[in-house]
Structure formats: C-alpha cells, structure tokens
Predict the 3D structure of the following.
Amino acid sequence: MIRADELTKHFKVHRRKPGFAAALASVFRRRYEVVRAVENVSFRIERGERVGFLGPNGAGKTTTLKLLAGLLHPTSGAVTVDGYVPSKRPPELLGSITLVMGQKSQLIWDLPPSETYAMNRAIFDVPKAEFDATLAELTELLELGKLVDKPTRQLSLGERMKCELAAALLHRPKTLFLDEPTIGLDVAMQLAIRDFVRRYNQRHEATVLLTSHYMDDVVALCPRILVIDEGKLVHDGDLRQLVKTMDPDKRVSFTLTSEVGADELERLGAVILREGTRVTLRVVEREIPAVVGRLLGPLHVADLAIEDPPLEEILRAMFGKAREERAASEAAEAGGAT
Amino acid sequence: MRSGTSRALRALPTLFRVGVAETVAYRAEFLVWLLTSTLPLVMLGLWTSVAGEGPFRGYASPDFVAYYLATLVVRNLTGSWVSWQVSEEVRTGALAMRLLRPVHPFVALGASHLAAVPFRTIVALPIALVLLASSGASALSGDPGQLLCVLPSVALAWLVTFATLFTIGSLAFFITKSMAIANLYFGLFSLLSGYLLPLPLLPRWVATVAELTPFPAMLTTPVELLTRTLSGADLARLLGVQLGWAAATVLVALTVWRLGVRRFEAVGG
Ligand SMILES: Nc1ncnc2c1ncn2[C@@H]1O[C@H](COP(=O)(O)OP(=O)(O)OP(=O)(O)O)[C@@H](O)[C@H]1O
Ligand SMILES: [Mg+2]
C-alpha cells in the first residue's frame, strides 16, 4: 500500500540573469527562487491497483514518483510504501519496488544488458532458477532476443527501453513506478508493453503507478487516475467519474447520407466537428434517445456512435482553466504592485 | 541494514566481474590514466641527479630509486577516480539508478574499483621487478615478515584513499564545483603523503602536520614498509595508525554521504 500525506517537495533554484555583470553580482548576492514541484499531495493506493498519473509538462509527476521511490527527501509531509519510508531506502523496500524512467538508464552503458541483469540478480539476491524463468518470460514478451548481448550504447532508443524494462523487473518487484515507460516505442511494442504491464499486475498482484504522455496507455491500463497540475492534486478517482464531472455530455458522431442543413444539426446539439459528411455533435445525456431517434429515423445517418468525450479534450479544458485563472491572478497582482 | 550488507557481500563477486568487464571496456582510458600517474619517475630523475654528488640528507641514489619506484607501485594500486565518478553521478542525476539498488554505493563502487586492481598489477609488477633488480634492491627491506605486512598495508592504504576520494565526490551534494576541492586535495596529497618527496626531506613542521593527517597512511606507510627496515614495534604502530585512519575515513565518508544524499535532487527524467 502506498500512502502520501500532504506530500510536498520544493526545489531551491538559483536564478541569474544572463551577462557578465549579473554573473559577478551573483557571486556576492545569490538570488534563490522556490519551485513548488509537489504541494500538499495526499492519496492512498491499495495493493494491486493500477493508477495513472496525468498532468501537463512540469506538473510534478516525475517528482512525485521520485519521492515515492525514495530518490528525493520530501520537504514536508510523509510518504510510506508498504509501511516503509522510501527516503530511508531500507533494503527490504528497495527489493520490492522498481522505478523505470524513460529518460534514465540503469543499464551499464559500455556493456551488454546481460551484464546489468547478472549484477541485478546478485544485488537483489534473486535465486538462479527464478531469475532464469523471469528472464525467459521477459525475453519472450519483450522480444529481446539477442539484444541483451549487444553493448547498451549500440541499442536503439526503443530497444534500450525494452532492455531497461527487463532490468527493472528481474527481481519481480511488487510495486512498479513507471515514468513514461513507452517513450520511443512503436505502436506494436507500446501495445505489447501495455498488455505486459496488465498481466504482470494481475499475476503478481503488483501495484502499478504509471505516467505517460500517450493518453491511450493510461486509458487502457488504469481504472483510476490522479491528475496533478502545478504540483497540486486536482483529481483522484475513477476515469469515468472524471469525465462525468468535467463534461457530462456525450459525443454523438455519424456519417450523413443526405443533405442536412446546419441549423437542423444545431437543433440536435452543439456541432463539434463537421468534415464533409462526417459530423460530431455534443449532446446532453437525457436528450440522447430523442436525438438518436431523429438521426436514425428521418435523417437516415450511417455509422452512428455514442461516446464519452475524449480524455485529452477534458484535460486540456481542465488545465486551460487553471492556466487562465493563474494568469488572471498574476495580472491582478502585477496591477496591484504598480 | 544487516540484510543490505549481506546482500552486498553476496553480490561482491558479480560486482567484481562487472568491474573487470568495465575496466576492459575502458582499457584505452585506463592506460592513459596510468601514464599520467608517472610523476614519481620525474621526481626520481630529479633527485638521483641531486644525489649523484653524494647522499642528500641521508638519501643516496639507490634510496631514491627504491623510494620512487615503491611510490609508483603503491599509488598505482591505490589511486582511483571515484571522486570524479561520484560527483558526476550526483551532478547528472545518474546516481538515481544506483540509489534504487539495495546495496550501499560505497560498497558497490568499492567493488568495481577493486576489480581494477588486478589489471593495475600488470603495470605495477614489472616496476616492482625493476625495483628489485636495480640498485634499489639493497635499499629494499630485507625482512620477509615485514615485506609480508606490505600486503595489508597496501590494502589499508587503498581503503583510506578510496574513502577520502568518496568523501570528496560526495561534496557534490553540497556544492556544484566539488572538483575544485579535488584539485586542492591532490595538492595536499602530493605534498603530505610523500608522493612528491620523502616526508623526512620536508621542513620539520610540514612533516609534523602531515603526521596529523591521513595522507601518510595512503602512501608513505606501505612505501616505508617496502624500503626501510623497521623494528617490530614501529611496524605495529604504523599498521595500527593506518587501521585507525581507515576506520575514521570510512566513518566520515559514510556520514558525509548520509547527510548529502538527503539533498540529492535526482535531476532529469
Ligand atoms: N532538481 C530540480 N531542481 C529545480 N526544479 C526542479 C527539479 N526537478 C524538477 N523541478 C521542477 O519541478 C517541476 C515538476 O517537475 P516534474 O519533472 O515532476 O514534472 P513532470 O510532471 O514529470 O513533467 P513532464 O511531463 O514534463 O515529465 C517543474 O517545474 C520542474 O522544473
Ligand atoms: Mg516527467
């Protein structure tokens, strides 16, 4: 189980204007600015859950994962993973978690991945038989083949990511922190990884916390999502619930088979898209039966589909709103200062 | 922590093997590094020409030959670039991956650096043979018991050096330009460890200051064991002092590390 209570991480950054004079001045007087990367974030994740972590760039997702994995000490607040404090890095905990970062490699750069695997087997104290079985499974699932015997530096980005995942899972961790694990992978491999993570989660009852900029990864894998923006948790819950509260209207899309006037469509719902004969309407849920009746009846449309609004759209609206509010308050502050 | 230590011990052979593979992968860089640590040969040339006109403060030519060749061998076996390695990993955030493993980085890095030692003997051994064969042979300690003590003494010198360099690397947690400190360190080391010239040839007060630092334990002690005939009491005292410095420097290294790692920012990703 993962528990975060009012988890907060601030970074002090040294700000300096460009130029020689500024450089000289900064020797005598350093100006610091505080970056509030994670601010009072609280949540609980039960054993075996798959949780998606969403938020725009710089929201604090990676920082939160680093706090959970014990790489960073919190500025304030508390976090425990299976009852252990991650920043103390007890070996018992390190032996049962893993962190995969798309941008960071644990593979030894000049040696083949197999050397890293051997080293991890020794360090994590994995029995030989179990290690061989896990490696065989991973090799098949990730199609590693002969990649593991090639020096890491000669692997392509996608190949390296696959080897990276294998290295991270050889000790069969119970908690997986995956920070953009599908970065650089082609669509087929992305799907394979998704399947793999779900199967791993089910077979080992492992907890998975995942961030990805591919929304599809998150939608396909995670029944629950945490949305973080500017370091603050703005939503925690069911994916469907998020969609419902943010935008309860449905999307009704279809193909026109005859000429239909724009005002006729407008009467059914808000037109979101019209490309040739392809139309998407936004319709309030309780009006769906009437609208569908009319579309299939007198209007004779084809390929009718009723869907929830796409997550991307909802998030954009959500973050957009936050941005606007911030811009407005900053403008007000600036106005007050002058 | 106990389980961490025992894991580390069981992992040692593999860490060692990976260290060997790394050394092989970096063999060119390794050779360059070896070549740059030939300062003692320069000093040797200098002092033999000085001593050519008669012993200098008790040091005759063969004494200098023995001293500097022994220095070269000991430094070859004990030096490492771990301070650079640690500070780079802190600066770039690469340390993150090391921190996820249930083995203390001091142990993991120690094992990988120890793995390079056999390769270093490839260089150290011929020099040692030259040392024996050359005029220095007479200047070498003749007591087999004492020569046997050279082994633990070199091992302790390695540990004191490694722990000190690890500490300097860990300063990167606190300051961005920790390599400036590494340069200062090398200056002090050269002077106070006997790397540049035998401590007895230094002004008395410098030698006294040196005795208060761990530097002699890094170099002079094993060199003395190799080149001077010591009484049993002196031998025991020198090894004891080395052991003390080993304990102290390891303690400092682990403490600085523990305090520093809280400030680690794990940049990147
Ligand atoms: N070591 C650091 N020092 C200073 N600021 C930092 C540091 N690490 C992160 N930050 C800042 O903290 C904020 C959160 O960063 P974080 O990496 O957690 O974002 P993220 O949600 O993972 O974004 P992305 O989607 O781009 O990966 C950013 O504003 C970032 O600039
Ligand atoms: Mg990130």
In short: Residues A 61-62, 179 surround magnesium ion (ligand 2) (CB under 6 Å). The radius of gyration of chain A is 25 Å. The mean pLDDT of chain A is 87.
